[in-house]
Design goal:
disordered N terminus; OB fold (Dihydrolipoamide Acetyltransferase, E2P); alpha+beta
Length: 194
């Protein structure tokens, strides 16, 4: 199969144009596949001419539909799964008047703060103008919302505690309250009896 390296401007194609884009790229790859297979058959003396016209037309009328359908299905599946797994690895946030690039895996927990969020890391607390809902979608599967004010990184959770009917998650020696509305989801995600 021919792999085409495309310029970066194609990475943000509107959804309405995705189908046309992938059909076009798929068709170009497919034509390349036909040419390469015919050349290989000719070089191995399985064909008398370099590009077999009968083979080409037979291929285009019959099996091409199956091949294109399978190719497009695999291509869309790869594209969709790569989008899901490609969460950003860094996030912009401020500390004082300076903007920093914070590595997402360094964030231990996040706190809601008016119209901002506080990103707690080993290097300190960073501030970002964002909502809890928006930032949670940017972070990936390692982060769990435990309260309307708190999101925790699963890798930094040390333990869970219960005290006077309330549940807490301990992250870097900081106790964060788990809201009753998130209790069942947090228990399932952290695989513990919270």
């Amino acid at each position: 199969m021919i792999a085409l390296k495309l310029p970066g401007k194609f990475t943000t194609i509107p959804k309405a144009q995705n189908i046309l884009y992938y059909v076009g790229i798929g068709f170009l790859n497919f034509l390349g596949y036909i040419v390469i297979t015919n050349v290989v058959l000719y070089l191995l003396n399985f064909s008398t001419s370099l590009i077999s016209e009968n083979f080409f037309w037979k291929y285009l009328t019959g099996i091409v539909q199956v091949h294109l359908t399978l190719y497009l299905f695999v291509h869309f599946y790869r594209h969709k799964t790569s989008q899901q797994t490609n969460a950003p690895k860094f996030i912009q946030a401020a500390k004082g008047s300076t903007t920093y690039t914070v590595k997402i895996t360094d964030i231990s927990w996040i706190e809601s703060y008016d119209h901002y969020v506080k990103l707690h890391t080993a290097e300190g607390v960073f501030l970002r103008r964002d909502t809890m809902k928006n930032i949670l979608t940017d972070l990936g599967n390692d982060f769990v919302r435990i309260h309307r004010k708190f999101i925790v990184n699963k890798h930094f959770v040390k333990r869970t505690e219960k005290k006077e009917g309330k549940t807490f998650i301990v992250v870097n020696d900081k106790k964060l309250k788990v809201s009753n509305s998130y209790l069942q989801k947090v228990s399932r995600i952290l695989n513990s009896t919270v």
